[in-house]
# Entry
Amino acid sequence: MSLRQDNITYESLLEGNKEWVAERLAENPNYFDELAAGQHPPMLWIGCSDSRVPANQITNTLPGDIFVHRNIANVVTHTDMSVLSVLDYSVNVLKVKHIVVCGHYGCGGVTAALGSKQVGLIDNWLRNIKDIYHANESDILAIEDPIERTNKMVELNAIHGAKNVMSTSIVQNAWAQGQKLSVHAWVYSLKTGLITDLKVSASSAEDMPAVFKMDVK
# Structure
């Protein structure tokens, strides 16, 4: 644990907030008035809850630039009402133009999903990642290095999440109505700080396998 983390307390967080407000106002006296006027972010970020992967900092963006949903291991399923609600609001109200599912190397959730040790309630959540592993088992087992094997699973999990986003009725209806919307899969490296585009993107239903296409209204 770093010295800075040792010094973080309940009180220090409140003091840090005051310092941050003072810095913003020194730069722009109207900063918070402008921020309170409304949000029009061009991107939805679906990422991991890991404290080391804050969307705004690693993309060098400001509050108001990215709408964010985070959960353990950036899992996207069609039965999660939380992620679906965020997705619906982002697409149909905020009219975002890009949706990114971003995983990160060294993800504890993915690592746990590759093992058999029980952690707790989260084991049921991570079952989704085990399903991805099962579907790609031969390819994963062909990778000898355990770190590289886990990294590959991180990538596959992000790709699977992006494809699940693409196949929702929310996104497909938006495409059918001519809305400009693209979905992407990314992965972030804690060691380098760099984001890699996994080159799995879609901007229309034509970019998807036929089995996932819906007859839209």
